[in-house]
Amino acid sequence: MLISAHTDPATRPGPWNQDPGWGRPVGQPLNALFAQMERMVLSMQDPDQGVKMGGQRLLITVIPHAVTGNDIVEWLIQKYCISEEEALHLGLLLLRHGYLYPLRAPCSLVLQLDGTLYRFQTPYFWTSTLWLATELDYAIYLAKKNMQKQGALANHEKEHYDQLHRKIGHTWDLVVMQAREQLRAAKQRKKGDRLVIACQEQTYWLVNRPPPGVPSVLEQGPERGACIVTRGQMTKNMDFYKWEIEYCRKALGRIRVKSSVCLEAYLKFSSQHGPHDPITSGCLPSNPWITDDDTYWAMNTSSVAVPTKLRVERWGFSFRELLEDPVGRAHFMDFLRKEFSAENLSFWEACEELRHGGQAQVPALADSVYQQFLAPGAARWVNIDSQTMELTLEGLCRPHRYVLDDAQMHIYMLMKKDSYPRFLKSDVYKALQAEAVIPPETKRRVFPFVWRPRHSSPRPALLPASASASASGDTAAAAHGPGGGDGEA
């Protein structure tokens, strides 16, 4: 279904009505709206049937893969057989949701019907795939902009800048350092790349931190007053009543949980995770944050031979706990090898490497994962349904770091519902619980009133040098006199 471009809410047919202030369908879920826009943007970037893109000169700088406002509107008219007014409104929606960004005047998200240059936003910055912007990132952006323009920020940006400076003042040195480092890295780029990145960043913050008076497209729903006004303008035809009946039916079938059930779930969670909380239950054999004993770090490293009993118990809390622990994932891999299904976990790990790897290696990694796990006759072929395979193959035509998310989720749910319960019931997991180590509590010294200067606990990254550090510390403590014992009985 095409996103409607009617500008008059009263004349629009069907149950969905436009918000007159912004143009987003009232009541339509955001995920469905983003999915429609992203399908449209992908078709616009098709090299054969998409919008004509090429190198465009902006003053004396050549910008690659740029399009003009005229080309965007003409393509929408020819593709969807709509009027020029509707095509302009549809292009404006894409621009205000951050799927396009202007190169000449990025401070205003307006689609011009002339030779104004625009570029398509990379999928990494799409609204549906990007996490919410943090205050720290916004503070770095404002600090960098303040350094570039020597304090000439907009009024609302100055207010945000002062508020963030008061709110996260304890980390402001980090903000300034990051801003200076980004400016230094930008000076080493070409002029065209600097211009593109600056416009891309400014458009991103216009979408995530809009100026005062501009509605945010990231809100989870329309304003209550706007919704009431729009309903008054709604034409009460057959489609309206069908939509009203369906809405009420979904509301009646919505799952609701009693407060007693919620409280019982919270109590169960607290009792289950209570022994694993170092603050409430303490650390064994000793607390490394307030003592010089680093045995706790050594017994909980990612490459320990025998894990502790608490660590093995956490693997039974959830499948995510098992995968996030390298030791648990290694034992789960051994179990899957015995069941001849280790390729599922290997495929999940390969998708994680693709997701968090370098941007330059994304095409090569995506092709390697496809050839190894998804291609016909692959050496370690994984079982994926046909619908997920079709979506994955379409995405591999233009690979990005999230192209295998659907296939990875399918394999993840397969392991969670099938392999993980059998692992918890297997003899392998029971043997791990039986062989797990229970650290003994470190004995207190006989004379606790004897004072000894405390030293900072070593971090896990400094474990290899802990032995030499503790030896030198004992030697120095012994040199202070008879009161500088080791403190352990």
From TrEMBL:
Q: What is this protein called?
A: Regulator of G-protein signaling 11 isoform X1
What biological process terms from GO does the record include? Answer: G protein-coupled receptor signaling pathway; intracellular signal transduction; negative regulation of signal transduction; regulation of G protein-coupled receptor signaling pathway
Q: Where is the RGS domain?
A: 318-433
SMART domains given in the database record: DEP, G_gamma, GGL, RGS
Which segment of the chain is annotated as a signal peptide? none
**Record's GO cellular component terms:** cytoplasm; neuron projection; plasma membrane
Q: Which CDD domains match?
A: DEP_RGS7-like, GGL
Q: Which gene encodes it?
A: RGS11
Is Amino-acid biosynthesis set as a keyword in this record? no
Compositional bias annotation for Low complexity: 458-480
Tagged with keyword Signal: no
Residues forming the DEP domain are 47-122
